[in-house]
Each structure stands twice: as structure tokens, then as C-alpha cells.
Design brief:
With 677 residues, the chain is of the alpha/beta class. It is built from 21 helices and 17 strands. The longest helix is centred in the N-terminal third of the chain and has 22 residues, at 26-47.
């Protein structure tokens, strides 16, 4: 196979024999059970608070957890703030700003400054949602103009991957990740997140840090009263408003719009969120979205929602119930409010009016309706850089540039672990659950004439997590039909760990067909999320999308403080336990593509694996991190791996087990020669 497209063709089977996939909702039900348990525990704990002292202790606990989840923060370096232009609109000025949130990382922002008023003014920080035009988007211009007309100083800044801050610019004003897409932000955000995860980092931390430095820039303005600064934004900007409220105590009030609900409701409703909206470990810490607002208690907050939004109103109302309960115990119930408009996803006029009224009340402002006479500026008029992209500014670097530098630094720090040191690092990173003996299993009806190189196939469901219902499906190829129980044996056996579907790959791959004939005992394992449990959830045909079902379960695993890779390694190890219970404890493990990652790690950890063949395995995680573009999915990323080890370390250790590397894949999932591996 010479590339990703050909690799994916392993599932393009004949019309008579589509790939087996009898459990396409297994992962969704597994995630639903876990999320529901965590959500109910969080709700019960908050609502069980009965005294002011208990509420204060809970707020302090949440703040500590938020600091751990979102931090540690980088060193604050000079902003190098400069004004690149100005628009005079009578009632207010628009100053075009560029500053650096970290060295070489430029941020573009528009500062709305009211004219004709004396004394320090209240201010509002505004992170943007997923609008392609970012700070020039209509919702942001609308409430920035409205707030400025009432006397607020407003700073709206472009997020990474949007507006003037594309991190993968194509030189023609678009993104290389989405050349035909006017809204490439989702693609860019998740592409950055994949790379950063390998470093033990998270793209959302970069977003929040941009907001902290934007707050620094706002407070440098002489017109601003630092005691009266609020934050508001919609959609992804609503996310960042909630994150900012939890992380930056300088913010006096907040108004997140069209985001606050719950990670539980998003998950059970099959609604994926961008990588920056899903903090790693936050569910493991027992926190929900409502806790981000509780962390800011008793500072004023209004939750802005819309009845026809895709974010579940049940989650929004229950989040508000928890927040209001804590504020009531703190004697600050008058500082929390809820608004539900009639519209869909967006910052509509009704929500703006609700925000205006709430901020005015807590900032001590009296003003008439400021929305009369709003005039939307053209995108170019609000542009802060000469070319429209910060990447073109002298000395500026993109996130891929910074990731490459960090990856190269980590290579020197971690060295080349081997032996027990490597095993220890792998175990520490995977944090696998304890296994005790062979797993429970179910016997499925056997297949005949599937087109394998052997006539019969016995099939079993291996229960890899009885508590929440995770499973792997194992196929054992037979010369005779068996249905009552798995046949016992002895001696060597093959275990195949597939790329996408063992059924399709066993039928269509010539190398595997020959191997089926040669080996006396042949097993194949569809680990979770592959083959027999390939998800059909989230959106139709979305599996490989930046926002698809494979991504959804990978990002959810990370929020649970785990990883999809670890889940899959556990499935392979549980399968080896089950095979050993049948007498097969000398295994030749063969893995392909996506399966080569859990396959190689399981082979490293399990002494019963005596021989290893990896087909289309990634050459290294460092290559994925350091190459400008990559196509390995988030489900293939092992968070923090480059702080501990890399795949070449694993491959070197597996040489003692006769490792064979067959046509490894590069960062773009394209085959390369073994010599180049």
C-alpha cells in the first residue's frame, strides 16, 4: 500500500460482503455510562452543599483543580504592544493592535474606546467564537459598538486559527487544512491540538493564555478601570469566557453565550466539541462546565442561552441551578442570572440586551439602547497587519514552528530509554487498569464462507470493561465449524491487530491471506472503535472527520484523564490473556496502520508476544509533531508521549522479539521504505 487512500481501501469490500460491524454503538453507550455517572456525582455533590463554609470550601477546591488543569502558565514576557491604525467613528475610536502573547506569537485585536467621557471606564474583554472573520464578525462588532456607545472600552482579539492568525496559512488568505472551506477554524484548532498533545500540552491552554495576555493589554490602556472589567463571547468565545472567568481573577463579571451546558449532555447527544473546549483530565477531577463559573464565585455571571441552540437546554438549566445554589449559600444570589432567547446558535439582539443590562447593573452604568445605528465595518477596515496574516510579520512564528522546537528540545531531555526504564515509562504513561485473569467472553454464531483463507471463523466478544461495557471482538479462524466453546490448543499462534477492520483486511490483503494458511492458530482482534465496533455516531459518515466520531471518543478519553491508545492497548492485552487461557501463550503479533500503535505497545509489555510484525506503523511521534502537516488522528496520539519516549525506542526494544517493520508510514500516512524507518 502506497498511501492513506489505499490503506483506507481495506474497507471497500464487495457489495456481497460488507465489513462486519455488529456493535457500532458500543463506544457511545460505553461513554454515555461513564459520563452519566460522573455528571450525577457532580450534581449531587454541589447540591448537597448546605452552608456558606461548605460553599466557600468547594469554590476553593474548584479553583485549585482549575489551576492544575489549565496551568502551569508560561512566563509573562513583554507584550510588545503596538497600534497599527485607528478608525474614528465619532462616539468611539477603533484602535488596531498587535501584541505578543509569547515570544514570536502575535495576536491581532481591535480596541473600541469611547470618546467624550472622563475618568476610568469599565471594560469588556471579548474572545471570539468560530467565525472565520473572528473580530470582524457581525456579533462581535455589534456588541463592541454597543458597549463602546455606553462608555465601555472593549478589546476583541483573534483566536489562533481564525481571522489574521491562521497557523497553517496557504498564502492566499485561506488555510491549507481547508482550502475550500470558509470556516477552517475547527480544522486548524484540532490540527494544533493533535501536535500539542504529544508534548503533554493542550491547545485550549494556549487559547486561555492568549486571553490572559489580552487582559494584560487591556489593562495597559489608560482609559480602563481595572476593577470593572467583564468578559463575554459566543460559542467558542463563550467557552473561553467561562475558562477566563475560572482562570483570571482580575475579571469582575462574565457573560458566556451559547456554550454553558455540560460535557455530559454534549457526549450523550453525540455533539463533539473542538479540542480547545475539552480540557484534559477535567472529568477525572470531577468537574463540569458549571464548575468553571463556580470557580469565579461570587463575581457576577449571567448565563446566556438560546432555546433553539444545539447545546442542550437541560444541561444549561441544571448548570445554572448548581451555580445559583452556590451563590445563594454565599449570600450573592443577586449576582447570578440566566437568559434564554428564542433563537438558534448565536449572539442575538435579545442576548445582547440581557448582557448590557447585567453588566450595566454591576458596573454602575446608566445608558439608553446602544444598538440604534450600528454599522458593520468591512473585514479589511478592521485588519491589523499589512497582509492580513500575523505569520507574515517579521520574526513571528506559528504554533507548528513552536511545537517543532519543543519536540526537538524534549528529544534531548528524554534520551533513548531502554529495558526496564522504557517499560516503566510506558506503564506510567498508559496507566492501564489492573487485569486479573482472563476476561469474560461471549460466543457469537460462527461464520462460514466469509472469504477468509480458512473456511470457518469462530467469533467471541471479549468483555474488556465489565463495569461500563467496553469490549473487543476476536475472530479465530478454523478448519472445522465450532459453536459450543472455543477450541483449546498449544504452541504458537498469530494475533492480528487491524488498521480499520480485521474482517475486511483478512479477506483482501494478500500477505494476511498467506499468513492464515501458514499458521496453525490464527486470531484477529477488533479492539474498541475498530471493525466490529467502528462507530456510526455523531454525524453520518463522520469517522475520519476533524469533528467525527473517532475524534469524539479520543477527546472524551482525554477528558476522563485517559487515552484512546491506552484503551486499545488494554483491549489487546486482555485478548492475549484470553488466548493464553486457551493454551496459546507464544504469540506472533501482527499489526497494521492505526493498530500498529496499540499493537507495538502491547507487544512491548507482554512476554507472551514472542515475535512482532508491524505493517504501516508510524515511524515516530516526533515526526508527526515536527512535520508541518500530519494526518494521524487524535485517537493515535498518546498524550505526553514525547516527554517520556518515542516509537523508535519501542521498536528498538522489540528487535529482541524479531521485529519486522513493513513499509512504515510517515506523518501523512504515506508509505516509506524500511531503510528510511
Amino acid at each position: 500500500m502506497r498511501g492513506r487512500d489505499q490503506a483506507m481501501s481495506t474497507t471497500s469490500t464487495t457489495q456481497e460482503r460488507p465489513p462486519l460491524n455488529r456493535f457500532p454503538r458500543m463506544l457511545q453507550e460505553y461513554l454515555t455510562r461513564r459520563m452519566r455517572l460522573a455528571y450525577r456525582a457532580n450534581h449531587a455533590r454541589v447540591m448537597a452543599l448546605k452552608t456558606r463554609e461548605a460553599a466557600e470550601a468547594y469554590v476553593a477546591e474548584v479553583r485549585g483543580k482549575a489551576a492544575w488543569i489549565f496551568g502551569p502558565w508560561p512566563e509573562k514576557t513583554p507584550l510588545n504592544l503596538r497600534v497599527t491604525g485607528e478608525l474614528d467613528r465619532g462616539a468611539y475610536l477603533v484602535r488596531k493592535l498587535v501584541f505578543e502573547s509569547r515570544p514570536g506569537c502575535a495576536v491581532t485585536a481591535d480596541l473600541y474606546v469611547p470618546q467624550g467621557l472622563s475618568g476610568p471606564r469599565p471594560a469588556v474583554l471579548s474572545p471570539c467564537g468560530h467565525s472565520w472573520s473572528a473580530k470582524a464578525g457581525e456579533p462581535y462588532q455589534s456588541y463592541a459598538q454597543g458597549l463602546a456607545r455606553m462608555g465601555y472600552v472593549v478589546l476583541i482579539f483573534d483566536p489562533m486559527g481564525q481571522g489574521e492568525r491562521l497557523q497553517y496559512p496557504d498564502g492566499r488568505g485561506g488555510s491549507v487544512w481547508a482550502p475550500n472551506d470558509r470556516f477552517p477554524s475547527v480544522h486548524e484548532h484540532n490540527a494544533m491540538d493533535r501536535k500539542l498533545s504529544l508534548l503533554g500540552d493542550w491547545v485550549g491552554r494556549w487559547f486561555v493564555w492568549d486571553g490572559i495576555r489580552a487582559m494584560d493589554a487591556l489593562l495597559e490602556q489608560p482609559e480602563v478601570d481595572p476593577a470593572r472589567v467583564g468578559v463575554t463571547g459566543v460559542s467558542g468565545g463563550g467557552t473561553m469566557s467561562a475558562f477566563a472567568a475560572a482562570c483570571d481573577p482580575r475579571l469582575a463579571m462574565s457573560a458566556p453565550c451559547c456554550w454553558v451546558s455540560s460535557w455530559h449532555h454534549n457526549a450523550v447527544n453525540e455533539e463533539p466539541l473542538d479540542g480547545e473546549q475539552c480540557p484534559p483530565g477535567i472529568l477525572a477531577a470531577g468537574l463540569e462546565q458549571s464548575d468553571l463559573l463556580i470557580a469565579a464565585a461570587p463575581r457576577p455571571v449571567i448565563v446566556l442561552t438560546e432555546e433553539q441552540d444545539f447545546f442542550d437546554q437541560r444541561g444549561s438549566l441544571e448548570a445554572f441551578e448548581r451555580v445559583r445554589h452556590v451563590y445563594r449559600l454565599l449570600g450573592a444570589e443577586d449576582r447570578v442570572a440566566y437568559y434564554a432567547g428564542p433563537g438558534g446558535h448565536g449572539y442575538w439582539p435579545g442576548a445582547r440586551q440581557a448582557m448590557y443590562g447585567f453588566f450595566n447593573r454591576h458596573a454602575g452604568i446608566e445608558a439608553d439602547d446602544p444598538d440604534a445605528g450600528l454599522v458593520m465595518e468591512e473585514y479589511a477596515a478592521l485588519q491589523c497587519t499589512p497582509t492580513g496574516q500575523t505569520a507574515d510579520l517579521p520574526g513571528m512564528r506559528t504554533v507548528p514552528d513552536l511545537v517543532r522546537e519543543r519536540s526537538q528540545l524534549l528529544a534531548g531531555e528524554r534520551g533513548s530509554p531502554a529495558g526496564e526504564e522504557l517499560l516503566s515509562r510506558v506503564r506510567d504513561l498508559l496507566r492501564l487498569p489492573v487485569r486479573s485473569g482472563p476476561p469474560e467472553y461471549r460466543i457469537l454464531r460462527p461464520w462460514s464462507s466469509r472469504g477468509y483463507a480458512r473456511k470457518h471463523a469462530s467469533q467471541f466478544v471479549i468483555e474488556t470493561d465489565l463495569r461500563f461495557g467496553a469490549q473487543a471482538v476476536v475472530t479465530k479462524l478454523e478448519d472445522e465449524r465450532r459453536a459450543a466453546r472455543p477450541a483449546r490448543g498449544s504452541g504458537p499462534a498469530v494475533l492480528y491487530v487491524p488498521h480499520l477492520s480485521s474482517d475486511a483486511e483478512l479477506r483482501e490483503d494478500q500477505f494476511l491471506r498467506e499468513l492464515q494458511k501458514e499458521e496453525p492458530a490464527f486470531f484477529a482482534c477488533d479492539y474498541r472503535g475498530i471493525g466490529e465496533s467502528l462507530p456510526d455516531t455523531c454525524r453520518p459518515d463522520s469517522l475520519f472527520g476533524h469533528y467525527g466520531s473517532d475524534y469524539q471518543y479520543a477527546v472524551s478519553a482525554r477528558m476522563l484523564g485517559e487515552s484512546y491508545v491506552s484503551w486499545r492497548v488494554h483491549d489487546v492485552l486482555a485478548t492475549l490473556d484470553w488466548m493464553a487461557s486457551l493454551g496459546y501463550d507464544q504469540v506472533h503479533l501482527v499489526a497494521r496502520g492505526w493498530g500498529a500503535i496499540p499493537g507495538s505497545l502491547a507487544a512491548l509489555l507482554d512476554e507472551r508476544v514472542r515475535r512482532v510484525t508491524l505493517i504501516n506503523a508510524p515511524r515516530s511521534y516526533a515526526e508527526i509533531a515536527e512535520t508541518p502537516l500530519e494526518k494521524w488522528p487524535l485517537s493515535a496520539m498518546l498524550p505526553g508521549v514525547l516527554e517520556r519516549f518515542d516509537l523508535p525506542d519501542v521498536h528498538r526494544e522489540l528487535e529482541a522479539k524479531g521485529l519486522g517493520l513493513v513499509e512504515p508510514w510517515d506523518a501523512m500516512m504515506i508509505g516509506v521504505s524500511v531503510r528510511g524507518a
